[in-house]
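JOB MANIFEST
job_type = single_chain_structure
chain_count = 1
residues = 516
[input]
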Amino acid sequence: MAADTEPQTSEPYRWDTLSHSVRSLLDSLDSEGSFCAQGSREDINPGLQVEGVGGIGMPISAYDAQRLIRYSRQAPFGKGSETIVDITVRNTWEIDAAKIKCAHPKWPSIEQSILDSVTSQLGIVGGSEFVKLEPYKLLIYGEGAMFKPHRDTEKAEGMFGTLVIALSSPHQGGDVAVSFNGKQKVMETSPDSAWSTSFLAWYGDVLHEVRPVTKGYRIVLTYNMMHTGPSAAPGISEGDPRLVTLQSVLKDWSRDVDVDDEDRASDPLPGYLIYMLEHQYTDESLCLTKLKGRDRTRVEGVLSIGQASDCECFLATIEKKERGGCDGFGPEDYAPGELHSIVDVEEQSVHIRSIVNVADGNLIVENVTLDDDEAEGLIMRKDEEDDPFEGEPCGEEFEGWTGNEGARTTLWYRKSALIIMPGRSNLGYFMAAARDSEDGECWSTNFCNLMNYYRKKRNSGGELDYLVGLVCQGPITPEGKEWLALWPDGTWPKLECSGDEIGAAAAACLRAGWLD
């Protein structure tokens, strides 16, 4: 449903009103896609052949299922940097794709038909045109086999999701339960499993589990879904009334952000706002062409009005850390692979782990700490009860059990985000936040990345002047002085600026008395 089409008032915004308006309008930029997909067919016989076993007929008999198990291995799972076999967490058998062949001449066209269906259901921009399937495993689930809740790892560059084709093999149970952003769904493969083939798909960051098989054998082909193409056209027209309204709000923000009057002094507008994306992305996949579903729709919408609204946007990874005492009395209170839970949070912090260019994912700024008040105001929430970091932690640093005292642990939560900045702001805000850092190397790397970013932009002289001047606004570490001292000779290897730009920055530092 489109948002109100009337332009927003030109009266100056309050911070909370601005945040709520931008959040609501971004939420309204929806797509047709879901986080999971499913379907079934009755005409599938892939002509399955397995090395060491031979041909497997359809439906797969219990005898052939047992033959497959004899030539398979117990499937492991990942825990941090380790690969573990533990049948209390994952109890299934696997055969590598290299040992599998689907010999039916029409099988490629059947795979394509299934791919067309799931990409449509997932709302992928461009459909299946820029998506390819990479065969991964054949999995055999016998009675009692299951896989506890987990998320798929990105197994290859460009992977964004998983496709499962459940071959015709009589079984009961083995349902796949998926959950994402508070939404749950159960997808069955057992109905008519003796006569038909079902297929399931989901995005890579969707939490899912395979519930125990209660009878028979559930046998599936799994595929990595890979994005292969460039950015496609935006999913929402630039004339969409929701974008017209959002453009008006952002333009007013850009106009008012630096207004210097008594009213604004007590309620300044933010230099940027953070909007949490629905999906979680790795460092390698955080760029426009690899965004999924609604994330892609919303970011492309903001990009389409960026110039007219005098705003810029960036992608980012936001991280929250919590430290405190653990629940339970000892290691026996936790299952293998289970993260510890914190009883009382003693310390917590939020920081921007990285900010990258939307188009190519190139790093611009990293490691910017936000104090509690900043994080509270800059991260857009639906309401006061909304926790932007809700969900399972992505990792922990466990400090262990010591004598009679309980253990402590640090949990961290990581979310991908869109950062929106009004035109009169720029990324120098993050340099200002980082200039007092004790990490001189990080400071200098950020400065270099920002210089390069603005150098490559058209009409970026003002931003470069601001950035060069910024180094004169506060203390700099000895490491930073060392780095800046290299500028006159142009010997800093990552700096691609011209001699004039290097000279201007060095001169600014000399005037400030930072360089001898």
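[summary]
The chain has twelve helices and 25 strands.
The mean pLDDT is 79.
exit_status = 0
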